[in-house]
Amino acid sequence: MKRQFSLGTVFRMAEKPLLRRFFEQFGAEVEAFCWDDVNYRNVQPLEKLFDSLQPGKRDEAEVALRQIHALACDKGMEEFAESAAFFQPGDSWEEMFLSTQNLYSKSFSAWLDFRDVFDYAVQFFEVDSLAWWQKRLDLPRITPHLDGNAIEALETEIEDLLKTTQGRGYACTIETVSRANGVFYFFAYPDDYVRDSLMHDDTGVLVHRPIRQTFEIVFAYDSIEGSSDLSARLPKRIKEQLELIFLRNILNMKMTSEEQKPFDLSVLLAPNFQLATRPEDHLKANVTGIAVSLSNGDSVSFRTQGTRPAVQAMRAKLDPGALLDQNFTVSWAKFRFEFLPAGGGRPKSLTFEISAPFSSTLKNRRPDLEEIIHRYLKDWGIEYDHENVTTSRGVTNDALLLTGGDGRSEGITAQTPEHSGVA
Fold it and tell me: How far from 135 is each of 90, 223, 273, 287, 358, CA to CA, in Å?
């Protein structure tokens, strides 16, 4: 669940010496401020100090505080660790990062003393929070073109596409950065539509001002896996054209829109399909939501209610004899994986959605858990396995899922409804 930002929380959780240094950065009168009046129960003086900043400085401070708050969590610490591995900031970083400071104080310290590490961590924290990536597989595993000519050509083609199709994108800037896991990111910032915004001027008078902001398009190319991902709030047909533009300019590929679709949810229609898991993985897998598209264009969705799984609800509602007919297709499904500690304790859970055939929210969550989930999605025939192209797609015989495809058991078991493993 997303953590709610508030000034009071940030001020309450950070150490006062760090807050003093933070306010100094924005021109606050920290010498005249009575720091002894501030404690865990009383942060109102700090809120008043924040309000006393010049409007422009106050806006800059709020942006920084929101970023500090966002990274003051376990996921933020993971991003800091990756960022530090990239920049190698030295012993002073290690001393701070491994200290007993709370997470907010560590986030403040990173902002104050290791700004390059902080900015890198913020960038990928935001990327890892993006959803609905469109994925493409079977790409060459190469180093992408990062030279100025390739980037400029990509910028120009994005501008041309958006101007002709949407009447925006008159300018586009692309920033690139790579991660240690072999993924190259291309952040595109094209112009958005002009908006007539109401705002207060320097004298406090409400005025109309036209503003043309940018919006974000993110391309991610995995040079180890040989795949690309695209995140953008744009229509599907434009995203497909953007993908082709990216592959042509950055990977020097002449691509068509025909491709291997990464996700196929048709296996969920099989009457005897079960989410088979290996006992040694100690996990439960469920489909908690499913949407079925009909031949007439209508769509009907089902969700888990009480102990009744979503797929069972679908099968009870729809004609079993027609489920495997071409009149039905599964367009969306929501999965929940629960990882049960072998020695007991609180289970870890991960929920994600797949919209066939291209989109999934399972990206940059928990790499250790993701690896297991992707393995099962491939075993079940839901995710395309480009390393084993003989894997059956749209499997309807669960005997194939529970064996190696030739009748030999691979230690996979089909969980029964009472064990919450049935789809």
Answer: 37, 14, 26, 21, 6
Residue whose pair of structure tokens reads 């054209």 in the numeric block: 241
Question: 3-state DSSP call for residue 263?
Answer: strand
Is the Cα torsion angle 370, 136, 247, 159 positive or negative in sign? Answer: negative
Could you tell me which of 403, 368, 107 has the C-alpha nearest to residue 278?
403
Q: 305-339 burial, b for 16+ CB within 10 Å, e for fewer?
A: eeeebbbbbbbeebeeeebeeeebbbebbbbbbbb
Identify the CA nearest to 152 among candidates 193, 188, 192, 191: 188
110-119, 171-180, 312-321 — which is least confidently predicted?
A: 312-321
CA 342, CA 81: separation in Å to the nearest integer?
28
Interatomic CA distance for residues 354 and 395, integer angstroms: 18
Residue 6: CB atoms within 10 Å: 12
Is residue 116's pLDDT more than 60? Answer: yes
d(C-alpha 385, C-alpha 392), whole Å? 10
Comparing 92-101, 116-125, 275-284, which segment has the lowest mean pLDDT? 275-284
3-class SS of residue 108: helix
Flag whether pLDDT at 402 surpasses 70: no
> How big, in percent rounded to 5, are the helix, strand and coil portions of the chain?
40, 25, 40
Q: Which amino acid is at 204?
A: G
CA 334 to chain centre: 15
DSSP-H helix ranges across 234-379: 236-250, 310-317, 367-379
> Any alpha helices (H) in 220-332, and if so which ranges?
236-250, 310-317
